[in-house]
Design a protein that fits this description.
Four copies of one chain form a homotetramer. Chain A is built from three helices and eight strands, in the order ααββββαββββ. By secondary structure, chain A is of the alpha+beta class. A six-stranded antiparallel β-sheet of chain A has the order 1-2-6-7-8-5, with helices on one face.
């Protein structure tokens, strides 16, 4: 069971994450250690080549991992990314993106997750990321 | 010598990279294979903990590598990131950020760069990234 | 269908990959874009803490990706790793390891794969890796 | 000042790191947060293409970071790698390798380092790595 509801995570985004909030992310699923987030398409996301800019996918991957971590440890907003690796596999079409994050490890101090990102209507993965979050000791 | 002027890169940002343009990046240096970019501080960049959100640093790192790549190969806007790894070393204060990218390798098909990010007024590095760009064959 | 048989890959290891051959890897599965490799335990694999040394897991991950790539493109031994990221999730016990690699992308020039590594008898993943291989143009 | 001498680190390798010891690494420099290690060439390090196998470079990078970490925290052999990213920039010739690691961050729980690897006689970097080590709490 998730330790944070979709409504609670939407509120965290709205009130404390303006960088993510600007993309109007939609939390589709929030389970213990797993999150699915959809990013609606807007033409402001594009870069040369008619594809969505890499930093948008990185922001989406990071947000999905944050959601997956909080779903497992609860409302610990001070959990922070310590590292992230992303591989861009295919140029995403100008369309909505969906990221699915799942925890690979949940330790006391570190959580590690992987993220798969898809472009709506395309079965092939467009990006894959792994990220590590540091969990604050005092909670 | 750089194959792209600062003014030309600023124009690429302004006209084709809205995701980066929103942060009003200032290109301080553009040499062959090396770029320094400053990101002015705004409170919209913050996340819980009073620090700058990770995706802002990722976007800055990616932009700095893009600049370093184009400084070496010229106006090839279709060069795209194929992978990026970032390590967050220290929570950046609410202040401007400066990223310095330098090419580690410039091949025909791939360029690899590393990026060091500093927070203004702090001598300790706040993040370190490496990124690979794919260079389109036809140019 | 795999473009390389298990026997052919075992021969590549035996004749051309002494660094991998020293670990006596057993190829359990080789399908198109997917490979499972088992590494028998020996006490020479240990490091302080009674756990298997990180470089052994890196070598295993790299070999599993090489197998997955060749299973999809055939006997192209000059395919080489261009990058690899590994996250160590849990200290593996002194036991055999199993790595499962699957291709996330197979392009003309680059292949990207992810690898999950398990310690025999433990359902929790001990390491996760992603790697990119460069595929030589002339083949 | 280093908290571990070259002789002490050589002893750690000889007595507790058989995976590294097999490559007969030579510790050239050990300063606080910085280590230089040379790996002599042997033909058993090769892979198809007449170049040194990737896992050898990964093992060397990891060892150099371990040395840099211990030079800063002392004889804490239970420090372990939590993640490593390597970019292969150029196929190393059949020659000795030299890795130079330097700490980018030394925290209470995590240390982050970068590593540059060169092939003897070649001024161009052949590989670049970043790695994170977890430092055990009780010491």
């Amino acid at each position: 069971m998730t330790k944070l509801s979709i409504a609670e995570f939407q509120q965290i985004i709205r009130e404390t994450l303006p960088v993510a909030a600007q993309y109007s992310p939609e939390i589709k699923t929030l389970e213990h250690g797993r999150a699915v987030i959809r990013l609606p398409y807007r033409k402001e996301l594009l870069r040369p080549g008619g594809t969505i800019a890499g930093p948008v996918l990185m922001a989406l991957a990071d947000l999905a991992v944050y959601a997956a971590v909080l779903s497992a440890i609860g409302h610990v907003v001070l959990a922070v990314t310590t590292s992230l690796t992303i591989n861009f596999l295919k140029k995403p079409a100008p369309a909505a993106l969906t990221a699915e994050a799942r925890l690979l490890k949940l330790g006391k101090r570190l959580a590690v997750a992987e993220v798969e990102i898809f472009s709506e209507g395309d079965p092939e993965m467009v990006a894959h990321a792994t990220a590590t979050y540091s969990i604050p000791p005092e909670r």
